[in-house]
Amino acid sequence: MRLTVEAVAIGLAPRQLAWQVLQAVAAGAYADGALERELNRLPLPPADRALATELAYGAIRQRRLLDAWLDALGKVPAERQPPRLRWLLHLGCYQLLFSARVPAAAAVNTSVELAKRAGLGRLAPVANGLLRALLRRRAELPASAPPWQGLPQLEGELADALPAATCLGLRHSLPAWLAELLLQWLTPQRAEAFAASCNQPPGLDLRVNPLRASREQVLAALQQAGVAAEPLAEPQAIALSGRVGDLRQLPGYGEGHWCVQDRSAQRIAPLLQPAPGQRILDACAAPGGKSTHLAELLGDQGEIWAVDRAEARVRRLQRNAERLGLGCIRPLVADAAQLVAQRPDWRGSFDRVLLDAPCSGLGTLARHADARWRIEPAAISALVALQRQLLEGLLPLLRPGGLLVYATCTVHPAENDAVIAALLASQPQLALRSSQQWWPGQSPGDGFYAAVLACPG
Hints:
The chain is α/β, with parallel strands linked by helices. The protein has four domains: 5-162, NusB-like (N-utilizing Substance Protein B Homolog, Chain A); 169-199, no CATH class; 204-260, 2-Layer Sandwich (Alpha-Beta Plaits), CATH 3.30.70; 267-454, Vaccinia Virus protein VP39 (Rossmann fold). Helix content is 45%, strand content 14%. The chain is built from 19 helices and eleven strands. The chain is globular.
């Protein structure tokens, strides 16, 4: 469907783009890649880019709840709807339920118009009728009512008959298996807070490069450029708010004054207690956020081997290091689990080892809109096996008296405390210095786990 000047003028362009992203994700594409491709294909003004991004990511996050509304209001269950209509209805319902800045009439009319222009003319009345039925259902509720209120499955005797995990999963659009686990791991109140946090658009945090600028200088430059920013508890962290546009156009980007890194991720590198002159291994390092943080903490005085299996991601790491002016990072394309065999001379030669391990990413569901629908519970055991393999492969590289930090961006205990407990049982010479779990909904930022292990001197 090609959009005319008239279509752009009446607000179809960002909605058409979001609809294309929803269809691409349903076909197997990753949400961020699909959005980037569509934005490159159809350049939009900043306000329309922001709207398209909000609608695409929001509708993807809320897939389960939106399907529940389609099931409640339509004659055909959501999963039996023609796929293109299903995702268009998701787009319309999302605007009515979640987007306060979109007038209800605009949400309905643009959805119907898109159906007509995309060859779904005979289904346009279906879209019109269902969206207006949702409007009528919600008109009886206070304006502050949560988006699940009015859904028959979650009201009265029907809700009382449902398991608590089903209600939690429906309210916050989480897969059933995850909602069940959350209620096993957490109190109902903490599970509710975690689930709600998964649907909040993530914040945008910067990490100041102290070798190029001070945090005060970066804050002043951003303020002068009209960008709202504030310092965070983490020593190098700044939080941005509001619309910031293309980050590469912000002051200090080209000069390497800062990079983007979530505040939680900024807590990991300092756990290694890096000091100038040390030799550090960063396994699974790309795209380099923690490698570059370590280099900054070393004052760029030392040696950091940044290892990753993906060549393209290692090139990206190298570009990041060059922009930040960091010369002590040595990128290497390799399998971190096989380094002892590939580099036998590295045995016992590193003062510090960081393993930011591949994981299920359950601590970053707000950041990755489609992740909750991609993760399968059966995949956790394979990830645990890989995490243990990596730890066992990296330990021989650590010198006596050295530190190893194991980190993940998940909250699954099997990938975190259980992995470390198994390692300590098989390697009794190691000492657990500390372990921490940051939960979304309880502390700002992404969910992370970190354990600090010491090798006896």
